[in-house]
Design a protein that fits this description.
By secondary structure, this protein is an alpha/beta fold. The chain contains 7 helices and 7 strands, in the order E-H-E-H-E-H-E-H-E-H-E-H-H-E.
Length: 249
């Protein structure tokens, strides 16, 4: 991916899972990476992993559910590297698992804040900088649940559907300005987000995928890298599932 070399790439939620895998892959292809996460120890671990392989990265702590923090994160990226060429708005949480009638207002607000509002906040400030540059590529983290429902996950489902719509709108508004915005929709991926589940629950999730397994973070990262590169120069406003056949059922 020669077109990624020397580009400044921002990754939110890069302290583990898909975010970490993508940050490492950006660096492998020569990008200068800003690793962001709310968990400072995890974020610095990602930076250390990148540097151990000869890559370039810095860590900026940010709670992306806060608009001011997102503004500061983008400003910090530009201050460090002079531009923001690529952004992967990946940070997210599973959130409260409950039926709609039983879901707490606090639980709903939290998952919407982290999984949807954060994407708007990050894009708002990323786009402002990309407009000055006249180019840029943004990839937003949706989910298979950005296309279908899942009982007890109403907040997550609503947020991830919202990310797809927000992505499409941004693509329409900024395509003529040289900026591409796309979304990825992983199925259940073997990341720390699933660590709280027991073996039986994980096996149930496996059974939902025609591929007969959970996905791996690196498999999602490969798609994000492609969408971030010039190889995807005519891909804009699209949603790409990475789901082992989940949505085909």
């Amino acid at each position: 991916m020669e077109s990624i070399k020397n580009k400044a790439a921002l990754v939110t939620g890069a302290g583990s899972g898909i975010g970490r895998a993508t940050a490492e892959l950006y660096a492998q292809y020569g990008a200068k990476v800003v690793v962001s996460d709310v968990h400072e120890v995890n974020g610095n671990e990602t930076v250390a992993l990148i540097k151990a392989k000869g890559g370039e990265a810095i860590f900026i702590k940010a709670d992306v559910s806060d608009a001011a923090a997102c503004e500061a994160l983008v400003a910090g990226t530009v201050k460090q590297y002079g531009s923001i060429d690529i952004a992967f708005n990946n940070a997210g949480i599973g959130g409260e698992a409950n039926l709609i009638a039983d879901m707490s207002v606090e639980g709903w607000n939290k998952v919407i804040a982290v999984n949807l509002n954060s994407v708007f906040y990050c894009m708002k400030y990323e786009l402002q900088e990309m407009l000055k540059q006249g180019k840029g590529a943004i990839v937003n983290m949706s989910s298979i649940l950005g296309q279908v429902g899942f009982a007890t996950a109403a907040g997550y489902v609503a947020a991830k559907h919202g990310v797809v719509g927000l992505t499409q709108n941004a693509a329409i508004e900024y395509a003529a300005k040289g900026i591409r915005v796309n979304a990825v929709g992983p199925a259940f991926i073997n990341t720390p987000l699933l660590d709280h589940m027991d073996a039986a629950t994980k096996q149930m999730l496996v059974s939902l995928h025609p591929a007969g397994r959970l996905g791996e973070a690196g498999e999602v990262a490969e798609l994000v890298i492609w969408l971030s590169s010039d190889k995807a120069s005519f891909v804009n406003g699209s949603y790409y599932a990475v789901d082992g056949g989940y949505l085909s059922k």
